[in-house]
């Protein structure tokens, strides 16, 4: 973002993202929310390899012919 000339001070950026997500999830028309059949995977404390492993395991569970 800085390379594009956008001020990217992390605390402010995180605050802005949280405010945007809250606003978008509370809007009366077409609120931002996961689909009813969505699988939500919190990757906050996962490494890239752990994320890939978990996603692959979910794919294999649902499409056993791929394993």
Short description:
The protein has 67 residues and is an all-alpha fold. Helix content is 48%, strand content 0%.
Task: Walk me through this protein's architecture.
It is a single chain. Helix content is 48%, strand content 0%. By secondary structure, it is mainly alpha-helical. It folds into 2 domains: 1-33; 34-67. The model has no long low-confidence stretch (mean pLDDT 88).
How many helices? The count is 2
Question: How much strand?
Answer: under 5%
- Order of secondary-structure elements: HH
Number of domains: 2
Relative helix content = 40-55%
Residue-averaged pLDDT: 88
In whole angstroms, how far apart are the ends? 39 Å
Mind summarizing the main beta sheet?
Answer: none
> Can you tell me the overall shape?
flat
Number of strands: 0
Task: Give the secondary structure arrangement, pairings included.
Elements: H1 10-26, H2 48-62
Question: What brief labels describe this structure?
Answer:
single chain, 67 residues, mainly alpha, 2 domains, 2 helices, flat
């Amino acid at each position: 973002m800085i390379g594009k000339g956008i001020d990217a001070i992390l605390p402010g950026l995180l605050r802005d993202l949280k405010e945007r997500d809250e606003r978008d999830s509370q809007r009366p028309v077409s609120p931002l929310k996961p689909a009813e059949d969505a699988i939500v995977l919190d990757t906050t404390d996962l490494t890239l390899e752990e994320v890939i492993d978990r996603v692959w395991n979910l794919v294999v569970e649902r499409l056993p012919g791929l394993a």
